[in-house]
Amino acid sequence: MIRAISTMLIVLLVLISCASAQELCVKNRIKVPKNGRINFKKVISVAEACARNQTKLLNTAVLVGNIGLQGEPGPLVQTLPSGATLRGEFRVGAQSPDKAHGFISFPFPLETTPTIVWVPQEQSSNPNCPGSAADPEAAPGFFCLYTPPAYTSNWTTIEFGSGSSQNITRFGFRLKITGSGDFYFGGGWAVTAP
């Protein structure tokens, strides 16, 4: 049944796109063969007017509207607009070896490289990072990484990078952690364009 409906929809679209006539018509009585397959090409037609044994399904004239004015540009931008914030979550972990790398790629690049601020589990907030792992926030020009206790275990060192390090760029962020045994590190993040 689903296959038949799919076939019918495809036939409808083809007929409508090829139609120079005004009405899409379907036969009033359709005989279903024993194999259950209906040839919709014989059941549906496009004409100036439907025949007496047909019902009008659609006036194809309503499918073509007037040409509108040029709209505003869409949401795809070259860089994240000033003051706009991107948010997400991250997880990094491993068993062995003792190092793991994680990457966060921003959906939209920033105009400039942001400043990293880590808000660890024991710190409630930071003036440039007033949010939390569940509700990440960042002041303009800052990338805030929030790590709640539930998402961190057995890690020993974290390398975020600083200064001229390439761990963060205007396109994203790289994180390296070390630990022992099963270790993981994660949380929420936010970055706001300056």
If you had to describe this structure to a student in words, what would you say it looks like?
This protein is mostly beta strands and 194 residues long. The protein has 2 domains: 2-63, no CATH class; 85-192, Immunoglobulin-like, CATH 2.60.40. The chain has helices at 2-18, 40-43, and strands spanning 23-27, 44-47, 54-59, 85-94, 99-105, 115-119, 142-146, 152-159, 172-192. Strands 4, 5, 6, 7, 8 and 9 form a 6-stranded mixed β-sheet that branches. The protein starts with a helix and ends with a strand. The model has no long low-confidence stretch (mean pLDDT 77).
Task: Explain the layout of strands and helices.
Layout: H1 2-18, E1 23-27, H2 40-43, E2 44-47, E3 54-59, E4 85-94, E5 99-105, E6 115-119, E7 142-146, E8 152-159, E9 172-192
Parallel strand pairs: 6-7
Antiparallel strand pairs: 1-2, 1-3, 4-9, 5-9, 7-9, 8-9
The major sheet is characterized as: 6 strands, mixed
Which structural class best describes the helix and strand composition? mainly beta
Beta strand count: 9
What is the fold-level CATH name, i.e. the topology of the largest domain? Answer: Immunoglobulin-like
Give the helix level as a range of percent.
10-25%
Q: Give the end-to-end Cα distance, rounded to a whole number of Å.
A: 55 Å
Measured by DSSP, the beta-strand proportion falls in 35-45%
The radius of gyration computed from the alpha-carbon positions, rounded to a whole number of angstroms, is 29 Å
